[in-house]
What does this fold into?
Amino acid sequence: MTMADIKYIGVDDLDIDIFEGQYPVKDGMSYNSYVILDEKIAVLDTVDGSFIDEWMDKLKAVLDTRKPNYLIVQHMEPDHSAGIARFMDEYPEAVIVSSMMAFNIMKGYFNTDYADRRIISKEGDTLSLGRHTLSFIAAPMVHWPEVMLTYDTTDKILFSADAFGQFGALSRTGLNIDEARRYYIGIVGKFGLQVEALLKKAAGIEIKAVYPLHGPIITDELPLLLDHYKLWAGYESECDDCIIAYTSVYGHTAQIVRMLASEIESRGRRALAYDLARTDHSIVLAEAFRAGTLILASTTYNTGVFPAMRSFIDTLVEHGYKNRTVGIIENGSWAPTAAKVMKAKFENSQGIRFLENSITLKGGISSENIEALKAMADEICS
Ligand code: FEO
It folds into this structure.
């Protein structure tokens, strides 16, 4: 799993239900941490606060009788930084290597920025451990502003912080592109420009393996993952699937969604429908980014749009959704307003092309609605 003198001391969180307060993780989550055993010893990041004892036991087992010289803090989010104070108490000779902004954030969490026990590093700075020479790469907003990746110039390993991570504990899952996508879109989807900047830097160095802070170490699958990252960072779709996200109160909107999906599939395109009241929005969000076409079907509610749809579109827009085709289906028994409200939510989004055909239900499904949905399916598949 790791190079001979690089040891994994991360932990699997199998009890967690919701990661970062919003992402369901049915296969748990890993908080990765590594030790480079060289003439000098560097520990890369700590773990979540619930696992500090387990992490410290693993660290001590790997160190045997030796003591670490450096704690490299690549990212200050608490799922990786919670063990900093414990480490610094345990190893009073050790110093922290991190970006200035990370030390600023550290003060907020630990009431100290370890001013007399630190090395402030920036892009291009190096740290020699003996056989290994580490070089630092700034990666602001992937996923916080202080993030600094570490490149082992000796073994050509990129320690990538949150980048190239995924949901799921290591004991339960290997590389899973669906979970890597849901993780990426949810956590850094908004920061495509910054991820592209990082990908540009990564293209300039030889990388034999990526050691992320979540999910498996990436070796042979790196080209596959990089291809996906290029699409995700550039807000490009992966396929011409049609995703239909809907809300339905009495079943009529759900029924027309099923009919539309069937019409689309009969024309040779894949259509997948998601009930926004019953599917976690992080799943539908990732699906919307994966596909080229998104149909939004919703009930009118309080002269606006149904709450689950309102919240879903807000999430889409907030994550920088762009460069896609969007179709609208609304339902309203006496004064439908959902279509207007849904469309308006995209007014500041770039590259959204609305289908010319839309559908308005006035409660149940009319013969005009059937004609309209066939026209919509024709337009989607044309
Ligand atoms: Fe895994 Fe942004 O913390």
